[in-house]
Amino acid sequence: MWIVNLALRRPLTFIVLAIFILISGVLCIISTPKDIFPNIDIPVVSVIFNFAGMSPDQVEAHITSPYERVLTTTVEDIQHIESQSLYGIVVIKIFMQPTATLPKAVAQITAVSQTILRQLPIGTTPPLIISYTASNVPVILVGLGGSLSEQELNDLALNVVRIQLITIPGAAIPYPYGGKMKYVSVDLNYQALQAHGLVPSDVVNAISAQNVILPSGTVKIGL
């Protein structure tokens, strides 16, 4: 009961203290940051490889495992690595330590991603690298459908929709998932190749030589 007796003897002190608590509470409510998704300061780098036509077990054996091994050798401050191998695509999430420097981690991952390409299957393209934090979540999911083919829908998503969404400030947009990408499939007759003294690499080189974009037309300057 001593606090009651003290309040009766010094009422003004307790009134001032109550006003101070009220003002402090209002200021704390106003100044406290509010967010639906709390900020989790764990930097994450996502690496996405695409290889059309490869099954998940092949993706895991020929791309995911070699890439994860080389990450642990050359990239600093890795907390843990998560990967998901799907049909023709692999998503590797590299969680860094809270004290890690994200630009440095991205630079190291980018460098090793270019180096590892020589050890991956022929035709593997450089991966898409996206940096974010563990608290980032997708805020929009766009799905395309219609009477068009899967190749045409994939082409529209990659070259039309994605280009328009990337102009949003702060947006990070990966490659579209699903559909079918445009590619050329060539069946070889090994006996016919041997009869002409050729090997499969000669066919690959011939096709690569045909897939060249050259300037055409005329330009008039100084008129």
Précis, in short:
The chain has 223 residues and is α+β, with helices and mostly antiparallel strands. Helices cover 43% and strands 14% of the residues. The protein has a domain of 94 residues: Alpha-Beta Plaits (2-Layer Sandwich), CATH 3.30.70.
What does this protein structure show overall?
The protein has 223 residues and is an alpha+beta fold. It has a domain at 43-136: Alpha-Beta Plaits, CATH 3.30.70. 43% of the residues lie in helices and 14% in strands. It has seven helices and four strands; from the N terminus they run H-H-E-H-E-E-H-E-H-H-H. A four-stranded antiparallel sheet has the order 2-3-1-4, with helices on one face. A hairpin with a 2-residue loop joins strand 2 (78-86) and strand 3 (89-96). It is elongated. 11% of the residues are buried. The mean pLDDT is 79.
Strand order of the largest sheet: 2-3-1-4
Per CATH, the class of the domain at 43-136 reads: Alpha Beta
End-to-end gap: 102 Å
* Largest beta-sheet characterization: 4 strands, antiparallel
CATH topology description of the domain at 43-136: Alpha-Beta Plaits
- The CATH architecture designation of the domain at 43-136 is 2-Layer Sandwich
Strand content: 5-15%
State the helix count: 7
Helix content: 40-55%
Q: Count of DSSP E strands?
A: 4
General shape: elongated
Mean pLDDT: 79
